[in-house]
Design a protein that fits this description.
With 139 residues, the protein is α+β, with helices and mostly antiparallel strands. Helices cover 29% and strands 18% of the residues. Bound molecules: guanosine-5'-monophosphate.
Length: 139
């Protein structure tokens, strides 16, 4: 028996309605139901994949191509000065829906959205060792 699809899997399959702004064979983009800003859009693979690192290479390429198109479309329509592309993986990283989704969030001056970003001092030797470990790890 096939595994039950999550909400975005069902939206991608056309079982649940959404406000779609772009679609092709592999990807769907639609407006977020609780937007952080006008034009807040979600871009998803149609196939059910929970996390970014689980995407097939061709699927990742399709998503990247769609992101460029959808970002241009959203910017054109909203007239926003900039935008964030955000993609959460795992509950610890605020992923609520267990299906890969990229947020395109239009930004305006004084929109009050902010971003908590706390840079830390680091030891160059520690960075060098860490970079080497990541370089050597299987991808
Ligand atoms: P996450 O925290 O998982 O990165 O973001 C999930 C996003 O999906 C939230 O911004 C939320 O508003 C949006 N969302 C959740 N359920 C639905 C839905 O049924 N339809 C749409 N269009 N957006 C949804």
């Amino acid at each position: 028996m096939a595994a039950e699809r999550c909400i975005f899997g069902r939206i991608g399959a056309g079982e649940i309605p959404c406000q779609r702004v772009f679609e092709n064979e592999h990807v769907l983009a639609f407006l977020d139901i609780n937007p952080l800003a006008e034009g807040h859009t979600l871009v998803i693979p149609k196939r059910c994949v929970e996390r970014f690192e689980d995407l097939a290479p061709a699927e990742a390429v399709e998503l990247a191509l769609a992101l460029v198109i959808v970002a241009r479309k959203v910017l054109k329509v909203t007239g926003a000065a900039g935008y964030n592309i955000l993609q959460n993986n795992g509950r610890i990283a605020s992923q609520e829906v267990p299906h890969v989704h990229f947020h395109i969030i239009p930004r305006r001056a004084d929109d009050g959205l902010g971003y908590r970003w706390k840079p830390q001092e680091s030891d160059p030797a520690v960075l060098t060792a860490l970079a080497q470990r990541i370089w050597d790890a299987a991808g």
